[in-house]
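Need the bound structure for pyridoxal-5'-phosphate, inputs here:
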Amino acid sequence: MRLSSRLPQGFEPNALSAALARLRSEGRELLDLTVSNPTHCGFTYPEAELRAALAQPAVLSYDPDPLGSRSAREAIAAHHGHGLRAEDLLLTASTSEGYALLFKLLGDPGDEVLVPSPSYPLFDWLARLEGLIARPVLSYFHDRWHLDVGAFAAAVTSRTRAIVVVNPNNPTGQFLSKTEWGELTGLCARKGLALLVDEVFMDYPLQPTPDRLGTVLTDPDPPCPVFLLSGLSKVAALPQLKLGWIAVRGPGATEHKAALAFLADQYLSVSAPVQAAAPTLLTLASGIREQVLSRLRANLATLDTALAAHPRLSRLPVEGGWSVLLRRPAVDADEACALRLLESVSTLVHPGSFFDLPGDGHLVLSLLAPQNQFQEGLDRIFPQV
Ligand SMILES: Cc1ncc(COP(=O)(O)O)c(C=O)c1O
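Answer from helper R.:
Posting the output first, comments after.
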């Protein structure tokens, strides 16, 4: 039987994943400098309060609203501020599901969305699984990372339906500037495109950004349809609760919300318990975020201290987010380097190519690892990269 052409041709793991699985099956103890799952990073979660929030009487009743429960949406609107209202929000079972709903909303099979590159590697498959094509548009590094709005404009075709940006971007950490926002919204308005903005890392600023826009919600009246995506995975470091959301603004918002509600109604995928718990979870989130933020800052400082003793290595600025780009002499391919580090010093890093960084000379490290493991990982890899 033939499977859908939306799927990959095969499901073979890449060389790094295959090596990782082999070493784990051999019982090798590995240090993971790619860890992005906060539940594995030794944070102190307010366990009793989380359990209580998920054990309220309301978790036993089921009164589905395709937009998501009003109380959860009110709490999320209050978390964002900037005049966001409960009626501007739709709940999803993750940011990934948010993308899937938006791609269904905006495109027909064969239509295109423009995505920044380097960025979140899932865009390609999230688009393909909805029958769309994600066209990468290269960002450039000049003192800091910049979106190339001219290149976005040049990439628009009659099939383009939307532009996706990540604010701050993963893994480059760059926040949108006010100038980029003005240019992007102007481009989308002229070409009849929607603008999708993923702000899952918005609450994790690390270094100053010139001309920083902040959240796109600071623009109350954008000239094009704007869809903001976020969720508890990063806002509360609670990915296991599977709660994301989409905020809708700009021209056509009423119609877009009605169409999204129709789409969400076919699945009703957000669990009642997480919706009932959401107001409490968002109250608890700030304490969890503080721990994450101080971990990110501490690991960045550790990295800078280690780099001072290794002048052949450097890092790119990190305006925000959970990752850092380590620059190394490109004496071999980044993927070969990552494989070498895994085999020889039992430490996992991501090659820049996993996030579509062009060329070689970059490794991507997560700043989330427990501090002693991060330090130990740097001690192991620095002599070898
Ligand atoms: C830019 C970006 N968006 C979304 C997500 C995932 O969010 P969710 O767990 O809500 O699907 C990630 C996860 O790393 C991410 O890097």
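Comments: The pocket of pyridoxal-5'-phosphate is lined by residues 36, 94-96, 120, 166, 170, 198, 200, 231, 233, 239, 244 (CB under 6 Å). The chain has two domains: 15-44+285-384, 57-284.
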